[in-house]
Amino acid sequence: MVQPHSPTVRGRRLARELRELRERADLRPEDAAQRLGWSRQKVMRIERALTKASSNDLNAAMDLYGVPSPQREALLQLAKDAWKRGWWTAYRDIFAGTYLSLEDEASQIREWQPQVVPGLLQTPDYAREVVMAFTCKAADIERRVAARMTRRSILSRPNAPELHVVLDEAILHRRMGSAETMRAQFDSLLTDSRRPHVELRVLPFHRGRHPGLNGGFVVLSFEVGIDPDIAYLETPGGDIYLESEDDVTRRRVVFDELSEMAMSPDESEARIERAAREITDG
Q1: Which domains does the chain have, with CATH numbers?
Q2: Is the overall model pTM greater than 0.70, yes or no?
Q3: For 35-51, what is each residue's pLDDT tens digit?
Q4: What's the Cα-to-Cα distance from 3 to each of 59, 232, 250, rounded to whole Å?
């Protein structure tokens, strides 16, 4: 029986390989569906990682496509790995979409943020202020803060991704909670920026017009052969995933331009230190 799910990187890779196998077998989706006794919709949903295929379905498809060993065994193992539960599954009630599963498996994360400190770098009190902008339910607020703190754990694991962040200088001026909350957040940013796999830059006001004026975004990269790069945009209307090579390349170019316009990591550290000193009570 097929099950709806949020695809992980491995799930997306499995779906892509099944599509490529069908195409190499010179079968259209409707041809494969007829031979397998499925609907065309089922074939398409499996190939788009929108539906989890059962082991029987996977074996039937590989029989039809003529998949030999050891590729067959590799795909079966990939299918098993694709549906392993990640930490985010405990927070399904507050997280929708697939972003966290993709972020968790990324080898490099590039983020441009013009509004607030990125979620991966937020302290509990700062995160609480951000969440309170969207909900007033105490239980919901604390659960979302807990989830963000769990999310931060990827920065401390042995295979932590490279994290490259460009912050708009406005973030250093935007008061989120008390002076103590802001000082603690700035101190945390400085600590995180000194991690060997983290690079943090601040884009200063005096740079004026820049290519990131239309909003923040994230570019996720994965180990070679795992999955192509993905650009992610969080909008009021919902999450947007850009996967075409042209769209992702444009976001990479914009990020590189923003990085060049921003202060160096050392200059950015000094700017954050100054922001921490300038925070006043009241």
Answers
A1: 3-82 (1.10.260.40), 87-278 (3.30.870)
A2: yes
A3: 999 999 999 989 888 88
A4: 17, 25, 35
